[in-house]
Each structure stands twice: as C-alpha cells, then as structure tokens.
Design goal:
With 292 residues, this protein is mainly alpha-helical. The chain has helices at residues 2-29, 36-61, 86-91, 97-118, 134-157, 185-188, 194-210, 216-219, 226-229, 234-244, 246-272.
Length: 292
C-alpha cells in the first residue's frame, strides 16, 4: 500500500510538472511584442470599414429629414439642445446651472488631463487590458456609458413637453402638469432655522464629495483594520492608496466622488424629491451664489 501511495504521488507530481512545462512553453511561444504593421493597422482598417458600412446603411434606412426653418414666434415644446448637449441639459434638472454647465464639464476636461499623471501603470506603457487596468477602464466605462450615454438617452426619448418625464411609448401630452413637491435636504430632515439648514447642508455636501477623506488615516497603514477590510472593495482601495500615495489618491477619489455625485443626486431626486443638499442662504444674511 505504501509503495502504491508513493507511486501515485510521484505520478501526480510528474503530471503537474508536465502541465507547468507545457504552459511555460506555450507562454514562451507567444511573442512578447508584435509589430504595428500589419497587425494593428490591419485591425484598425477592418474596424473602420465595418463602422462606415454600418453608418451608411443606418443613414439610408432611417429617415431623418430636416425640420422647418426656425420660427421665433413658435417656440418648440420642449426646447431641446442638440443631442450631444442633452446630457448637460438633463443635468440641469438635478444641479444648479453653474454646477451642471460649468463645474462638472470643467472637471471632466481637467480629469481627462490629469489621468495620465495620477493613474500610472508600474509596468510601463502598452498595458491596456482589463486585468491590467481594472479601475481605469471601469471608471471610464461607467462615466461614458452610464452617465453620459444614459443622460443623452433620457433627454432624447424620455423628456417630453415641459421637460416632464415620459416612459418610452407613452403619449407626450402637451397639457401635462406635475405638482412640484421638491424640498431641500435640510428642510426634509427637520431643520427650520438658517443656522441648522446651513450646517446640515454643509455636512451633507461634504459627505457627498468627501466621503473617502475619513478613510485616509486607515489606508496609510500596511494592514487595514478588520472592521474596515470586510467592506466591499476596501482591499482594492487600500492597494490603490499604497500604490499612488496621498496626493494622487486624493485627486483620484476627488474626481471619482464628483462623478458618483451625479447618480446619487438623481436617485435622491427620484426617490425623495430632494432639490438641493446645500441651500444658498447663509445664516449671517445675504446670499451665496451657489446651490448644491
């Protein structure tokens, strides 16, 4: 029996060694680098042909005639921006004009400019796969598909007369009226004085855009506390902090928090009819120039 066990273990070890050798040989057989021509250029050329073919067939099959000339005496209802600006117009429902039209678009441009400097890859350039760039690809796809494309879809197909919300296929009644019951967050939680509304609004805004700041003292340690490590995604955040350092981490998650603030504000509007988190009424009098 002992001899059979030894023979079995030897056979298993030999099979495992053979499997590793085959995998290594296969890895060696795959070239580490390939030339741009013809591999990449050929693929890009075929992709461009496919895209041009699809766009040509689409433009022929779908009738998109021009509308009548603009008439200043007849304003369309609703008055919509071009489709590529409908995302910004939809954001105006949830944020003040200065926030939706100036701050957020500026942060998008600035964020794209600083990405190469804050989200570097220790392996160098040329690594763009999902395994190598999970956070970068995931953040971009969420910002582009979920935030931008979804907002354009909402503004195009689900905003009708009066900029009211209509489900797809629902009749766009030009006489539809909806009672506006939106309230500010401080008022919703019971704050009635200016001081209480100002402080609660400031705390809510700080929590919305700076929720990650209290985690920094714990992320700087080599090991996370047990109560923090069980939270979903905290191990990845800890590794990201260790790789980027304090400054780059704060910039990265500052931009990320601003991006996440949009769907959070949309959900708060849809579920609790919250208009602003921080109202522009300081307790010492006067008025600030912003609402959030």
């Amino acid at each position: 029996m002992a001899e059979e066990a030894v023979a079995g273990s030897s056979t298993g070890a030999a099979e495992e060694a053979g499997t590793k050798a085959k995998a290594k040989a296969k890895e060696v057989a795959i070239p580490n680098r390939i030339h741009t021509w013809p591999y990449l250029v050929r693929l890009e050329f075929l992709t461009s042909l496919i895209v041009m073919t699809v766009m040509t067939v689409w433009s022929i099959a779908i009738d998109a005639p021009l509308e009548e000339p603009a008439n200043p005496n007849k304003t369309p209802n609703p008055s919509k921006a071009p489709w590529y600006f409908l995302g910004l117009q939809e954001m105006l429902v949830y944020f003040d004009p200065w926030m939706a039209g100036v701050v957020l678009p500026t942060m998008i441009i600035v964020g794209l400019m600083v990405v190469p400097y804050i989200d570097t890859n220790p392996k160098g350039n040329g690594y763009y796969t999902l395994n190598e760039r999970k956070f970068a690809i995931g953040t971009f796809m969420f910002g582009f598909l979920v935030l931008w494309i979804v907002l354009i879809f909402l503004g195009t197909f689900m905003r009708g007369p009066g900029w009211y919300f209509f489900w797809p296929g629902q009749y766009w009644d030009p006489h539809k009226t909806v009672a506006l019951t939106n309230v500010d967050f401080p008022y919703l939680v019971g704050a009635r004085t200016r001081w209480a509304q100002f402080i609660i609004g400031m705390l809510a805004t700080g929590a919305l855009f700076g929720w990650f700041v209290p985690l920094v003292p714990f992320l700087g340690k080599k090991e996370l506390p047990r109560w923090l490590s069980i939270l979903p995604g905290m191990k990845f955040v800890h590794k990201l902090y260790q790789d980027q350092g304090l400054v780059r981490f704060l910039i990265t998650f500052g931009m990320f928090a601003m991006m996440i603030a949009l769907p959070i504000k949309m959900i708060l509007r849809w579920t609790f009819n919250i208009k602003y988190l921080w109202v522009a009424q300081p307790p010492w009098g006067g008025s600030l120039w912003f609402n959030i």
